[in-house]
Amino acid sequence: MTASTLDDYLGQHRRRVEAALAAALPGPAPDDLGGCPERLASAMRYSLLGGGKRLRPVLCLMAAEACGASWPEAMPAALALELVHTYSLIHDDLPAMDDDDLRRGRPTCHKAFDEATAILAGDGLLTLAFELIVRGIEPAASAAECVRILAEASGPSGMVGGQMADLEAETRAGDGEDGSAAELEAIHRRKTGALLRAPLEMGAVIARAPDAWRDALARYGKAVGLAFQIVDDLLDVEGDEAKLGKRVGKDSGHGKWTYPRFLGVEGSRAKARQLAQEAVAALVPLEARGGRLRELALALLEREC
Amino acid sequence: MTASTLDDYLGQHRRRVEAALAAALPGPAPDDLGGCPERLASAMRYSLLGGGKRLRPVLCLMAAEACGASWPEAMPAALALELVHTYSLIHDDLPAMDDDDLRRGRPTCHKAFDEATAILAGDGLLTLAFELIVRGIEPAASAAECVRILAEASGPSGMVGGQMADLEAETRAGDGEDGSAAELEAIHRRKTGALLRAPLEMGAVIARAPDAWRDALARYGKAVGLAFQIVDDLLDVEGDEAKLGKRVGKDSGHGKWTYPRFLGVEGSRAKARQLAQEAVAALVPLEARGGRLRELALALLEREC
Asked: Is the CA virtual torsion B243, B244, B246, B251 positive or negative?
């Protein structure tokens, strides 16, 4: 392995993603020439370049590298993942959904622009994601497979379905229904888990990795995705508002279903640790190639934001 | 050519599309098993199976057939086009956008369900469209090219950009600005034109047609798409409310920019005729293969709904 620390390694990939994201968006074009209207381009840019951990694209670059590809080969897929993640945040923040005014410490897209623009910015980012994949990933068979993975992870049986199930659970929680850790997991598996697992599989596809590696990375992604969500819930209970850039304790209000609620704080920590260990165990078939991903799974437990 | 009339031919393709659409949607799944939540599946089904001319999918099947493919080969791409068209109607009808209560004679999706469900149903249909293409179109190179055509036609520089430009034009029209037929055309080229041209190109790609045929079909699609929009504007001035299933004259209220406003009723009719003739002329390289598409371009001028 290289001598750099995990933080250096992640920071380097993150900066590569930031630079590529800025270049991937359509520039504002004068309306009479066709192209992307200026207001729409500004809204997409505002939300996409407003910070964030870039976890999904970095996971994709890491998986591709672990399987022997170079990170630039995977960049179009990595960007597509961040576009889909960003669109989901824009739509989830809308008044009709979670009605949030603040995201990453700044006004949400519909606050900075307006609701119609925010809906269209989300639609545009989602559509552009698929275009980036087929324009940038080769051969076509790998591009088509990445489109399939991304669409399945983010579609009606994945992320979009998870957001629907989450809204329904909120209504049930508001009505005083108890719920269970199993029901919560079923929501998160779709709402956040699917799009955290997809980058690992896409990286493997782009590197044309053997099935055993792809399966290993999918299992790793599934465990890490759920661990990430549990830590998210723990941070919401314990976190520091300034670091998170959103109101702390919001999720535990109104009887909302969270891991700490069902398992307690200590039980949730134990579950996250267990999942990180499962993720590490899943990487065995990759041998030394899985080193950075192994480090990342353990580091997620120490997350502060 | 076959002896059946154009109406019989179109009706047959339309019924094939209807049957395939019903089968393409995810069934409602009990939430605890994962899969698509029942409410989301119902909303997608409500909007997708609520009628409509199915013009985009039928154009795709016709283009594929004209270039020598069989219609079943093109069906996944045809369905994807209708999913994207339906998602755009759901989002455009939202209160923050055009705020319509009625669509095809029935309550719009957000009226029949609620706003959050309508936003997610649109997101789900758009995502599923790309999944259908990569699952159903072969070889992968054709699937990837169809994804590119569909994403470009419906993305920020296509349909989504056109809706943004249209909303901005409405504000300007409301402020008493005059606008011009050229500005209106720039909006429609993106808002409706791009997704009417895409089926023709996708059909050619699926049939692996020579470039000359693909170019011919793209030119045909561009002309027919604009002619269709002009006839739409004319129907809004003159049409019969019961046939259209929406309030007539709505678009000409509030000084909205329409073709009859800029060119007059007779001038608009002449422009539509001229575009239909351009479409017919574009088909010359396809020789007799273009027969049905030729008939369709001329029939669009006689549309009543």
From this structure: negative
% helix, strand, coil for chain A, step of 5: 75, 0, 25
Mean pLDDT of B146-173: 95
Q: Which residues of A touch B131 (CB under 8 A)?
A: 147-148, 151-152, 155
Regarding predicted confidence, which is higher, B37 or A2? B37
Of B44, B148, B161, the CB nearest to A131: B148
**Contact indicator for B27, B41 with CB cutoff of 8 Å:** yes
For residue B291, give how far its alpha carbon lies from the nearest alpha carbon of chain A (Å). 32
How many Cβ atoms sit within 10 Å of the Cβ of residue B302?
7
CA distance B284 to B277: 12
DSSP A266-300: HHHHHHHHHHHHHHHHHTGGGGGGGHHHHHHHHHH
Residue A247 has pLDDT above 60, yes or no: no
The count of domains in chain B is 1
Q: Are A205 and A145 in contact (CB under 8 A)?
A: yes
Q: Which residues of B touch A33 (CB under 8 A)?
A: 186
Q: For position B98, what pLDDT does the model report?
A: 94
pLDDT for res B116: 98
CB < 8 Å to B186, chain A: 31-34
CB A161 to CB B40 under 8 A?
yes
Beta strands, E only, chain A? 102-103, 106-107
A183 within 8 A of A191, measured Cβ to Cβ: no
Note whether residue B1 is domain-resident. Answer: no
d(CA A288, nearest CA chain B) in Å = 33
The predicted-structure confidence for B4-59, as pLDDT tens digits, reads as follows 899 999 999 999 999 999 999 876 655 455 689 999 999 999 999 988 899 999 99
> Of the candidates A117, A123, A144, which has its C-beta nearest B144's C-beta?
A144
Closest-CA distance of chain B to residue A77, Å: 14
Residue A151 has pLDDT above 90, yes or no: yes
Q: Which residues of B touch A117 (CB under 8 A)?
A: 164
Range with the poorest average pLDDT among B1-15, B71-85, B218-232: B1-15
Backbone angles phi, psi at A103, to 5 degrees: -150, 125
Q: Using CB atoms, which residue from A39, A96, A144 is nearest to B164?
A: A39
Residue B2 included in any domain: no
Alpha carbon of residue A128 to chain centroid? 17
- DSSP labels, B88-120: HHHHHTSTTTT--SEETTEE-HHHHS-HHHHHH
Instruction: Give me the mean pLDDT over the A225-252 stretch.
Output: 73
CATH of the domain at A240: 1.10.600.10
Dihedral angle sign, alpha carbons of residues A133, A137, A140, A146: negative
Q: Classify residue A293: in a domain, yes or no.
A: yes
Interface test with A, best of B99, B120, B187 (most A CBs within 10 A): B120
For A249-256, which contacts have Cβ atoms below 8 Å and span 24 or more sequence positions? Answer: A254/A170, A254/A173, A254/A174, A255/A173, A255/A174, A255/A176, A256/A170, A256/A173
Mean pLDDT over B120-126 rounds to 98
* Owning domain of residue A233: 6-300
List the structure tokens of B131. 């999944």
Whether B125 is in a domain gets the answer yes
